[in-house]
Design goal:
Adenoviral Proteinase, Chain; 5-stranded mixed beta sheet; 3-stranded mixed beta sheet; 7 helices; 39% helix; 13% strand
Amino acid sequence: MSLLRKLSNRLTLVWHAQLMAPEDAYLSYHDIRLTKSDVDSIRFDWLTDNAIAFWEEYLERERLPQYPRAKICLLRPSMAFMLANTPDPNTIRDALPDLTATTHIFLPVNDNNNVAQAEGGSHWSLLLVSSLDGCAFHYDSMSDDNVRYASNVANKLGVLLGKQLKFLSMRDSPQQENSSDCGVFVCMNMKHLLLNRLLQADSSARVSMSMGDKVINARKGRKEMLDTIENFRKEGERRRSGEIHRSVSPFRRSLKHGSNSPPRIGDEQSITSPSPSR
């Protein structure tokens, strides 16, 4: 593809994005429906619940399957919030994934304790629970700003696991330099701990949970997340274009580019379409 063609395609994508309202759907990726507002939060703002949920869905769908023996769970922000604000965690056991055989659980922790306020709170941190060791490792990019909320979630999760968890604040967690990058730090810490620590470890070896040797570049982290979304969006557009060309029967519902439905990546397309590039 020529440089001029690439530039033209890029400008078209930017133009389309500028015309979208904040609540308009930008990408449907398996169980996550990203809006333009979610994507804008990744570009330059405090990450929404849905933006973090997308990143977890991506790691779960694209990376974890490469390790079929792994028993690792990535709880979505909504699940962690529900756990944090439920007096008796046993009452929501059926609403959560089965954690019986799980070895490690990732939970994005938010400091919102107002159940009536959607997308509330002002800070994200990451909790990584090892049910094997009975430990809850807390990674906070603003010192111990979220320790009270994370400790509460760890205690509730311990009830579900049937064991008291030892809570450990990881003092060497990479620190953010502004007030809006906490969600990006959660996503990048999660990716590093999952892919470079837990999934690379020998089953008999002890794994260091320290992040002291890791530098998080929030700007690069945001770009990585946005590039991932744009790659899936382009792939979804390509698949939709193929569906339009194949829809020749007068009895089939016409598929149009003008549809309000976003580009979609989902299980129902995996049989006829290749996986998105990684």
